[in-house]
Design goal:
Layout (H helix, E strand, L loop, with lengths): L10 H5 L46 H7 L5
Length: 73
């Protein structure tokens, strides 16, 4: 029996490779939908460039991910 397997793949690709209701935890860090700069950065020359197409968050991964979680997440 394999325990504590970590996969580093595209979530949409990975969702087709895993059965439903078998994952205990999904950790994500999607950088989408955060089209603002921190308030403490008054000097706009220090602002970082925005992520392309950041007007709306990428949410297509949420439903397939939820289906893979054991017990509904």
């Amino acid at each position: 029996m394999e325990v504590n397997i970590i996969h580093n793949k595209n979530c949409m690709e990975m969702s087709t490779m895993i059965d439903d209701n078998v994952i205990d935890c999904i950790i994500t860090d999607p950088p989408y939908g955060i089209g603002y700069q921190s308030a403490w950065r008054i000097d706009k020359s220090l602002w970082k460039p925005k992520i392309a197409n950041d007007e709306s968050p990428y949410v297509e991964w949420i439903k397939p991910a939820f289906e893979k979680l054991r017990g509904g997440g």
